[in-house]
Amino acid sequence: DLVRSRGLGDVYKRQVWNVLNEGGKMSFKAVKKATKIKAEKDMYAAFGWLAKEGKLAFEEIEGEMYVSLV
């Protein structure tokens, strides 16, 4: 249901923010591994929420996507 999924989304969002706050710019793969978020769609949803809030920057380096806090 919506309430449960929104709550879980907040958890993933905090995990992603904490990992990037500690690690700086990281590849998508590194963020997924560090957060232990199993489903990529959940990680991308967390990226989406944080990006919508203006908290993320994205960069492609040699074909690999990186994300960092702004």
Number of contiguous helices: 3
Major sheet size, sense and barrel closure: 3 strands, antiparallel
Instruction: Report the span from N to C terminus.
Output: 32 Å
Number of strands: 3
Q: Which residues form runs of ≥5 with pLDDT under 50?
A: none
Element pattern in H and E: HEHHEE
Which structural category fits the helices and strands? alpha+beta
Radius of gyration, in Å, reads 12 Å
Share in helix = 55-70%
Shape, per Cα inertia axes: globular
What is the chains' assembly state?
Answer: single chain
Mean pLDDT: 89
Strand order of the largest sheet: 1-3-2
Proportion of strand residues? 15-25%
Protein described:
61% of the residues lie in helices and 20% in strands. The N and C termini lie far apart (32 Å). It has a 3-stranded antiparallel beta sheet with strand order 1-3-2. With 70 residues, the protein is of the alpha+beta class. It is globular. It has 3 helices and 3 strands. Helix 1 crosses helix 2 and helix 1 crosses helix 3. The protein has helices spanning 2-23, 28-35, 40-52, and strands at residues 26-27, 56-61, 64-69. 17% of the residues are buried.
